Amino acid sequence: MxxxxxxxxxxxxxxxxxxxxxxxxxxxxxxxxxxxxALMAAYGTVEGRNCHSLHSYFLRAGDxxxxxxxxxxxxxxxxxxxxxxxxxxxxGRPIFVMMASFQKLEVGLEHQDPMxxxxxxxxxxxxxxxxxxxxxxxxxxxxVMSDRTQRIELRRxxxxxxxxxxxxxxxxxxxxRAKRPAGLEVARQQATLAYASDMTFLSTALGAxxxxxxxxxxxxxxxxxxxxxxxxxxxxxxHLFVQKSPSTSGAxxxxxxRMFSRDGVLVAxxxxxxxxxxxx
Length: 280
Prior knowledge:
Strand order of the largest sheet: 1-2-4-5-6-3-9-12-11-10-8-7
CATH topology: Porin
Distance between the termini: 37 Å
Mean pLDDT: 90
Low-confidence stretches: none
Number of domains: 1
Helix content: 10-25%
Strand content: 35-45%
CATH architecture: Beta Barrel
Structural class: alpha+beta
CATH superfamily: Acyl-CoA thioesterase, double hotdog domain
Radius of gyration: 18 Å
């Protein structure tokens, strides 16, 4: 499935939508997919307003073999803002819940953090190409992942994302863009960013401990995910995802992120807490 197909939902009833997940080799549905589809479902009930923030919780692991049903509650419709609650279910059980707020376009005060300096994406190699370049040294699970459809193109410095590196600082930068052109509508651009924002995120906290998402004896899962949309997005172009983990504790890791367009505009900020459980 292409990203365009992933983000296209079927309306099955009023304020009710159905989405599908491709089988990309994961044991569960990718969290960024559920966030993106839930946002598209919410947009199906909104006119004349753009999402400025969303806050969500992952309740259960999703099954890639089952359709995902999104039910939208029209929590509030005001003069400038409206709020939607989206619940995603499979076989009648909730797997995800999200609150999203939408605002009419307004003009106001402006400031932003500067984009940090980083190598240009043209000077870096596609992440999947780096994986495949390892040849026989590439682990089987990574080989399966690299053979699947790539919806987001990633380029970053440092070792490949699945390789644990002892002594890593708890921050990293990754260039990202849609692998194939995404629609220019605000909803699809925001949903594309939402999909991408769950990639490489929790590994920022793991890297501080010399671990990777596939390290032996490690259980990881996204617990929640929040995004604040600041400015217009064109994810057909390169964006720099700047990530930092301020804390790991209580078998959880917190990661914050900022997404900058190629010309240095801060388009979105995000935060996620994930489960990091070491088993004996």
